[in-house]
Amino acid sequence: MANRNVVETEMRSVELAALSSAPLTGAALLHDPACNRGTAFSLEERRLFGLEGLLPHAVETLERQVARVLSHLDGLEDDLARYVYLIDLEARNETVFYKTIMSDPKRFIPVLYDPTVADACLQFGNIYRRARGMYITRDMKGRIADVLLNWPERDVRFICVSTGGRILGLGDIGANGMGIPIGKLQLYTACAAVPPGRLLPVLFDIGTANEQLRADPFYMGTRDVPMSEAELDELTEEFIDAVQKVFPNCCVHFEDWKGTDAVRMLERYRDRILCYNDDIQGTAAVALAGINAALNQTDGKLADQRILFLGAGSAGVGIARLITAEMKSKGLSVEEARKRIRLFDINGLIESSRSDLTEMQKLWAGDEKPSKNFLEVVERFKPTALIGVSTKGGTFTREVIEAMARLNERPIIFALSNPTTKAECTAEQAYTWSKGRALFAAGVQFPEFEMNGERHRPGQANNFYIYPAIGLATYACRPTRLTDQCFIIAAHATADQIGPSLQAQGMLFPSQDNILETEITTAARIAEHMFDAGLAQVARPHDIRAWIESHLYRPIY
Fold this sequence. Notes:
By secondary structure, the protein is an alpha/beta fold. It folds into 3 domains: 4-103, Hemocyanin, N-terminal domain (Up-down Bundle), CATH 1.20.1370; 111-273, Malic enzyme, N-terminal domain (Rossmann fold), CATH 3.40.50.10380; 278-557, Rossmann fold (3-Layer(aba) Sandwich). It is built from 26 helices and 14 strands. The chain has helices at residues 4-21, 26-30, 43-48, 62-74, 79-92, 94-103, 105-112, 116-122, 124-127, 144-148, 179-192, 211-214, 229-246, 259-269, 278-298, 314-329, 334-339, 359-362, 374-381, 398-407, 427-433, 467-477, 484-495, 500-504, 515-532, 544-549; strands at residues 134-137, 158-162, 199-205, 251-254, 275-277, 307-310, 341-345, 348-349, 385-388, 412-415, 439-442, 449-451, 454-456, 459-460. The strands form 3 sheets. Strands 8-7-6-9-10-11-14 form a 7-stranded mixed sheet, sandwiched between helices. Strand 10, helix 21 and strand 11 form a beta-alpha-beta unit. Helix 19 packs parallel to helix 20. It starts with a helix and ends in an 8-residue tail after the last helix.
């Protein structure tokens, strides 16, 4: 990246110019996380901005500040304490926060997001420090545009919005779900260097059915029962219209809505505005990436696979839909592709005799013998791949994994539910019960496992390989829409970055050590497709990758 030093120098000059012209001085400047440099302000800057006497004498480098942060983090007892410390740091000094996170993403992604964010959401009222993002409530109906104008930034490019109705595998946790939009958007920056000032977390505080939360004195959300579907639709419609007026260049990222709401909102808005649903499209893309990476190791073809899902909600159906689209591009008809996919939920196999299926599930209901026995379906269908999106921990039993190993030389086992306690099986179980032959990935990062002298490195099939790259390409290209093909391109770009050395260890996803390079490579491929498909609203550059790099946020003073 020959132009990177030039870009960083130019950004430093722009930031210094902006700082010198900023109206903030004195304590107000130190309390602004985007402008604050703390002990890194020079003596001249301290005189210029009224900071003399407000800081210790020492003038420190950014590197020294990060070293102090790392020392503090090392002294904390667990990752939830580290999460709280980092969230407080972000509120004080955004540059030090992102410099710390981006210096070691493999270490800090699990602290900021899965699995720690689940504990953070459960404890949200207890660990609350300051408001971050915006909360939309039913009493704002009729004036949501005015409320959005309270946000201090005008050029918002991404809003991550959740209802708190289906957070990870935790279910309805109401306003405590705000930890998810916050964490998702932090990874836009930490993984793909999308500028943090362009990101806005939003929580639709629409009430909660969680009686324990409603009785909690520290719960900060509305204590009403959830609003009706019709009322939610009206509120969402007004919100979407308000976003188009207040933030006209904004992409809406739907996150952790209740399954039926998630599908309905995506279908309603996907062809109308710039938006996507990460639980549906991002999860589908990362699963497709893992399958493609596994097939690269087995020399298999996607059109020959038989894929069985445990879980038939919005995530499962979303993955099935994207795999079907990919199989169709490989020569199968939609009907042929659907015959190679089966879904199984809490009430059994999705088949045509069931009267409890949702509209989205009916497409996958064939004329088959009913069954509530998952192992029986495995033996009958003979899948080459299992994909768990059930949020039911331990449901890939020893008998199920052993059956998969008997049916396949290299069974593909994806236990995608999170947090860790919700995973359908652990990496150790998958490798042990398959005698080391499973190609395994999970939604959370399991530790390396050694068996018979062979080291296995389980992959983490987490959406952070997909949506930050989608975000970076969208930030640069300003597309009119995000199509399914954008996510298929992202899946292939991710799988293609698994080199021979990683394949030899059974890895299905790139290392997180250099996640920024991975995301840039994926974003460049997505951007190329956006230009080819006529989605982009900016002029096509000669060198797309270099142009993508020119948009990167750098945590520097």
